[in-house]
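Give me the fold.
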Amino acid sequence: MINKLKEIIIEKNLNTYFICVGDSKYNIEKEKIVPANPTCNCYSVAKAFTVTAIGLLYDKGLVTPNTLLVDILKKYYPSDIDPKWLKVTIHDVLLHKVGFGTGLLDIDCDDASLYPTNDYLEIVLRTELKYEPGTVFQYTDAAYYILSRVVSEVSGKELSEFLRPLLMDTMKFKEYAWSKCPFGHAIGATGLYIRTEDMVKLGILYLNKGIWNNERILSEEWINLVIDNRYEFTHIGNGWYAKGGMRGQFLMFNYNEDKAVACHSYDDNARASLVLINK
């Protein structure tokens, strides 16, 4: 498969750096197409790692999709908070149905130095919600920054450090880093710098229903919740579940083909993510 994908990428003149293909037996192939730094920003593919962190908390019995956000972050709620924030659940946040009327906290595009405060959680929680929680989809990085803070509050560890021993160390990642807010919390929504051959490992984990080299990392129950509810991974056709990121990043897996695929690119039209569908 990887040779075919490389041919298509070259034929379509995609500005793709690396493409990786893995299977349920943990075989990983990597092709370098355009020279680039080995560790790249996967942009919104980072959200899939944050979903996984919530799953680890779920498996420990510490949160459920129905958990109210206020039960976790209440001490950060301003006294004059919009009452609709009291109804927001983890499920709403995972689905980008918090109630926002516009995108918020997009550090990839915003000039963060212009934010009114360096307390990103305060920025988010002081935002008046336009819609009732759970009713309207509004994609925003603010939702996954909230989840990063949920992980920190529940586990006692900042998101990237919470994931390190349970995921990155177990699956033997090389170097990685996550952009953090001024208070030291991983953004959660973006800013995860990672090697393509490590990014594909998350796809393999989902392909294997939560098992990595005979060690269970995530419950099959959580994997099924992710797929059934489309917590970031969306069915895009031909059996593929995918999470994309800005400028052509993607992570996909397919149970029927027993394959996971990851890609780092720089493509403003994100055409690279269409390669598998059109192959």
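The chain is about 30% helix and 15% strand.
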